[in-house]
Fold this sequence. Notes:
The protein is mainly α. The chain is built from seven helices and three strands. Helix 3 runs antiparallel to helix 4. The longest helix has 45 residues.
Amino acid sequence: MIYHEKRVRLPKPKYIVFYNGTKNQPDSMELRLSDCFENTDNEAPCLECTATMLNINYGHNQELMKHCRRLEEYSIFVQCVREYIQSEPSVEDALEKAIDTCIHQDVLADFLKKHRAEVTNMILTTYDKDLYEKTLKEDAREEGREEGLMEGRARGREEGMEYLNQLNKYLLKSKRYNDLERATEDIEYQKKLLKEFGIE
């Protein structure tokens, strides 16, 4: 009925993301599509989408796990796979051992018995150990670079404030009030005064 003027009522959407990556994340957080947008000069975007991210790694969201045994078993299985990947010579060996252990401990036992080959195949085709480790290293390097930049900027601001404080002291001591006032509004004049007093 495209010509009706009456507003069509829609069911309220709720978008949930289950997180089981390896970074340390809170049990729950809100994700916003706009966080991915390039600098919008503090303008509100014309499009927004929010999602609730729930961390389903083992040990997180205990209340949720208590109410959903299947999800809890899945988180135990993933943790088991990760632990064996660290200790076994190959991903294939790690998977075999993790599946056997989980079946023995009645964790997703019915599903793993029935779909063992599919689970193994799915994990082997989506998991590349070398790429995984390389990605972790790249992420760590990127985080280090960002932290370094932030520290550098903070240090630069502190040093800048020290220089300006020194300049202000010299100007006040010399009773050059007009220069002090002009320096607060004219960056080029400020630079000239810093040079004059040998503040670098």
